[in-house]
Structure formats: C-alpha cells, structure tokens
Amino acid sequence: MSKAPITKIDIPLSVPVTVSGADGRNAERSTITLCRPKTRHTKRLAILIGPDLIDLVFGDDTAMDALGSKDEGQKKEVGRRLIGDALRRILTTDALEELTALIADMSGEDKAVIDDIDLADLPKVLMGFGGFFPELQSKASGLLLSISQSSAE
User: Fold this and answer.
1) 3-class SS of residue 30
2) Alpha carbon of 35 to those of 6, 53, 55, 75: distances in Å?
3) Strand, coil or helix: what is 83?
4) What are the pLDDT digits (tens) for 87-145?
C-alpha cells in the first residue's frame, strides 16, 4: 500500500523573519509552511531549470552510466559537473527572482518574506521542497553525500 502524498511541510526557521502583522505591527515568523507543488509550480520550475539541463542529466548516457558506476572517482567527477551546470543555470538574477516567487507562492508568503529568510535557513527551505519528492531527494542526497565524502579525502 502506498503512502498518501505529503500535502504540506513546515520548515522551522533558526532565525525568525520579521513580517508586518494584520494589525500593522511587526511580528516574527519562525516557521514557513510549504504547500505541495501544483501543476503551475511544476511548469514554472521546468521553465526555470530549462530543457538544456534535462538533456544534460538524462540525455547524456555517459553521465547516467557514471552516476550508476561503482567507480567513486568517476561518480564524483560527473556529479560535480552536473551540479555545477545546474547552479550556473539557476544562479542568475532572473532565475533567482523566479525561484523566490515560486517559493513565495507555495508558502502563501510575500516575496519579501522569502527574501528575508536567513542564509542559514535556505538549505532547510530547499530540503523542504525536496521533501515532496522523497525518491528524488534520496537520490540527490546520495549523490551529494558521495561527492562530499570523496572531496574530504
């Protein structure tokens, strides 16, 4: 029997975000709640990532073979290349603004609230998003773990 899909994820913030309360006074938000991505979010994310990245990951048999390889050096090299390419595509002003808008929409918060999340809490937000897709998150975590372990050697 399959589990019911996760519909929301509460992300505790180490550093609360100051927001304007309904009464006009400042309040602190110590948790951000992400709602399960809808089709509109998935479409926006697909556009943000772009078809080139999909081709890079899934269209490159060498990369796919290397990621499934037992050769940790090869896996590390290909994993770093894929992550580097993904970051180069997403670390632009337009892409970051779109990602902020996407997270704001999924959380029901203003973009300004998302922009004010402390740097220490950003990985939690990204992992929270990944929590809606446990299989994908598990594969990504395994890849990141293999890259980070081999780079520490």
Assistant:
1) strand
2) 9, 25, 29, 34
3) helix
4) 777 788 888 899 999 999 999 999 999 999 999 999 899 888 888 876 655 555 555 55
Cβ–Cβ < 8 Å for 58, 82: no
Query: Which residue in the block uniquely carries the two structure tokens 């999924």?
Result: 106
Q: Is 124 exposed, middle or buried (0-12, 13-18, 19+ CB in 10 A)?
A: middle
Maximum alpha-carbon separation in the chain:
59
> Of 150, 145, 139, 151, whose CA–CA distance to 68 is shortest?
139
134-151 vs 122-130: helix crossing angle, rounded to 10: 130
